[in-house]
Amino acid sequence: MASSSAQFSQGELSDTQFRRVAALLQEQFGIELPEHKRLSISIRLQAVYQATGGLSFDAFFAERLGQWPDMAVLSELIDKASTNHTYFWREPEHFKLFATVVLPELERRFRMERDLRIWCAAAATGEEPVTLSLLTMEYFQCKGGWRTGVLATDISASALAHARAGVWESQNVLRLPVELRRHFESSGPSQMKLRAKAAAELTWRRLNLVARAYPFRQKMHVVFCRNVLIYFDKDTTEAVLQRIHDVLVPGGWLFISHSETIGRDSVFEYVQPGVYRRRTA
Ligand SMILES: C[S@@+](CC[C@H](N)C(=O)[O-])C[C@H]1O[C@@H](n2cnc3c(N)ncnc32)[C@H](O)[C@@H]1O
After folding, report:
1. What is d(CA 60, CA 80) in angstroms, rounded to the nearest whole number?
2. Ligand 1 pocket: which of 90, 125, 153, 155 to mutate (most atoms <8 Å of CB)?
3. First to last CA, the chain
4. Which helix (H) or strand (E) covers residue 130, if one does?
5. In 46, 136, 231, 270, which residue has its Cα 20 to 30 A from 13's Cα atom?
6. CATH architecture for segment(s) 92-278
């Protein structure tokens, strides 16, 4: 009896089709598509094709992924192409700096406006923006009249759906310092759910970092954009960094990963590994 993958091999993308999909994902989202993802991408594209009906697969491919690519179809493929790996309290020095240096500094500088905007730009399944939000809540809880919130964005709809649901494995949540864990409640034998009050502090949106412009009316005070620039080529990284720079207030903070660096001649001022600021002048 033929295995399901052998049966499927008829519908697997040809070399040319696979290279075309890889080139489109690279161009539109900066995401590299390795060969080992060919089968999962092929299965997803077949599912999209079957939902549309009508044309043959090759005709569908030529129409939707040819000269005028259909962004809705490409968006369906991102979840299979992107790496959403993350966990609570990843690279903790950044969170400690955020709570002990960044928030107090912003509180002093913006005490008249009493309004702080924090953007987590590669939120994946939500652990990082939730942590930022909880630290911000804790910090401002006894300082009345502040408006704070965390905007969490990612390109992956499935990662965002996971994040919005607000449920993570208990083992993962237990990585957080104990004072932050009280914002979770039990949700089944091995899962924990973010309590409604804390969940209300977060806004989840889909946003492509490779898009020409970011749709914000007001500037950000802090941007976390960790462990995503490594997937982009040099030109894409520079363009993304320039756009992030442009949406930060002067002196605003940028966090990237410890394993990512920004050149010394960049528009940002270096603070410590993975931490930069928009120059004030
Ligand atoms: C490895 S995760 C990083 C998660 C988290 N920032 C961390 O450091 O743990 C990378 C995330 O970047 C997202 N991503 C990749 N390309 C993107 C793009 N063009 N625009 C927005 N998000 C993107 C992926 O969907 C994925 O969720």
Report:
1. 20
2. 155
3. 70
4. helix 127-140
5. 231
6. 3-Layer(aba) Sandwich (3.40)
> Count of alpha carbons within 13 Å of 281, Cβ hemisphere only?
0
Give pLDDT, residue 10: 57
Q: Whose CA is nearest to atom 13 of ligand 1?
A: 122
Q: Please give the structure tokens belonging to residue 109.
A: 């500088």
d(CA 32, CA 193): 33
State the pLDDT at residue 4: 41
β-strand pairing of 147-154 with 115-120: parallel
Q: Extract the residue ranges of the chain whose pLDDT is less than 50.
A: 1-8
Distance (angstroms) between ligand 1 centre and the Cα of 80 equals 13
The rounded distance, in Å, linking the Cα atoms of 160 and 79 is: 10
Residue 30 alpha carbon to ligand 1 centre in Å = 11
Q: Enumerate the β-bridge partners of residue 269.
A: 277
Reported as a single tens digit per residue, the pLDDT across 33-42 is: 999 999 999 9
d(CA 227, CA 257): 5
148 forms beta bridges with: 116
The CATH code for residues 4-81 is 1.10.155.10
Helix spans in 190-258 (H): 196-199, 234-247
- Structural element, H or E, at residue 26: helix 15-29
Look over the chain and give the mean of its residue pLDDT values, rounded to a whole number. 93
